[in-house]
Design a protein that fits this description.
406 residues, Spore Coat Polysaccharide Biosynthesis Protein SpsA, Chain A, 7-stranded mixed β-sheet, 4-stranded mixed β-sheet, 33% helix
Length: 406
């Protein structure tokens, strides 16, 4: 007989599992890791089988019907042995005296069904519901990579509870793919050719996702748990139909630098989005764009990159080389050459709020200004000498879509 719980309870069960539990279950059952993830609400059937999970619309994300309880029972047993419980409010101290609550593994589990029944093995309240299809609230996390092994393990660890992780690799030569395989990611390859930027592969990566909603993450960015929960709460709302600008917290000279939020357009519906292949381009979406409030510090992407100034200068040179290709008709007058860098320093240091950082803030504003000065000089050189736009060195691919030094 099938077991039913709610979709969000099933996800919380998965999120509560200790590290390596998904792989442990997959190894014992001789199935792929993605098959186990599909059981807990994933939908990547190309790399894993349908694990017999059906969902009917209902409270708390929908009513989940489990045709096979094997994976569920193994997960509950792992939680019991680990001493952990399923994270769920309210706590036992505020639990009402009704049969709709039951304590499992030290945590309270809620089932909002009428006339609940107790399962003798897992001690969880269950009910029975007809089979249905999966809801369209699944999210794919998408990452573009090239030799991104430095931070990738931390990045994927923070993404492991998403329905799918797509790694679009541009022919890495380090351990990037080994790390991606270890986390059960869906891996697709985009030929690097002579490109030293990730934008040409962005659109391919987005449309390689299996799910209708896409979160684009750089290979050096951490998605905090609160941001993941926020995104799932938004797509669970049937009225939600928007793209989200997500604030990002950057590092500079050993610390996070605080100023105006570095907003990134990273969350949107897959099928109505196109990402142009030019450097520093933003995705083109066909839905309204909303901003996550800057006051929600718990929802910021955390940018791990903290390159020394020498590396940042090399990045500026590569970025401005690539910028020339999309500024073919751009020209700067003498007054513009004189005042434009001054304006960018004022915008970065005063309006951008980096003045709060003291000397670090001044150095950051200098780098932002230098970027503009280098770009102006290269465009002027092309204009005066008639030399063709430089396309940039094929070495030194940069994972980050938007540098934090401009």
């Amino acid at each position: 007989m099938a077991k039913t719980i709610t979709f969000n309870e099933l996800r919380r069960l998965k999120d509560s599992l200790p590290d390596g539990a998904t792989h442990q279950i997959a190894d014992k059952l001789n199935v792929t890791v993605q098959t186990v993830r599909n059981y807990f609400g994933g939908a990547n059937y190309e790399f894993g089988k349908n694990a017999g999970v059906h969902i009917e619309p209902g409270p708390d994300g929908g009513i989940v019907v489990l045709d096979d309880e094997t994976i569920y029972d193994m997960a509950v047993e792992i939680l019991k042995k680990s001493g952990q419980g399923i994270s769920r409010l309210p706590t036992s101290s505020s639990r009402p005296a009704t049969p709709e609550y039951i304590q499992t593994g030290g945590a309270d589990l809620f089932c909002p069904f009428p006339e609940p029944h107790y399962h003798p093995v897992s001690e969880i309240i269950i009910n029975f519901a007809p089979q249905f299809t999966l809801p369209t609230m699944n999210i794919s996390a998408v990452i573009n990579t090239y030799n991104a092994g430095e931070h990738l393990e931390k990045v994927l660890e923070a993404l492991k509870s998403f329905d799918e992780i797509v790694v679009c690799d541009m022919e890495s030569t380090d351990n990037t793919l080994d790390i991606a395989r270890r986390f059960g990611c869906k891996i697709v390859t985009f030929p690097r050719n002579n490109s030293n930027i990730c934008e040409p592969a962005r659109d391919f990566a987005i449309h390689s996702a299996s799910n209708p909603w896409v979160l684009v993450v750089d290979a050096d960015e951490i998605v905090p748990p609160s941001l993941k929960e926020y995104l799932y709460s938004r797509v669970a709302d049937p009225a939600f139909n928007a793209a989200l600008l997500i604030p990002r917290l950057n590092c500079f000279m050993g610390r996070h630098i605080h100023g105006l939020p570095d907003y990134q357009l990273r969350f949107f519906p897959r099928d109505t989005t196109i990402w142009p292949p030019t450097i520093h381009s933003r995705p083109k979406v066909q839905v309204p764009i909303e901003k996550i409030p800057a006051s929600r510090k718990d929802l910021y992407l955390v940018h791990l990159d903290d390159s020394p100034v020498s590396d940042r200068m090399a990045k500026l040179n590569r970025y401005t080389d690539n910028e020339l290709s999309r500024r073919v008709s751009r020209r700067f007058s003498a007054p513009a050459m004189l005042f434009r860098p001054v304006w960018f320093f004022i915008r970065s240091f005063f309006m951008g709020g980096t003045w709060r950082e003291g000397r670090r803030g001044i150095a950051k504003a200098y780098l932002d200004t230098i970027y503009q000065m280098m770009l102006i000089c290269k465009i002027t050189e092309r204009d005066i000498t008639g030399s063709p736009a430089h396309t940039g060195s094929p070495t030194g691919y940069i994972n980050n879509n938007t540098p934090n030094n401009r």
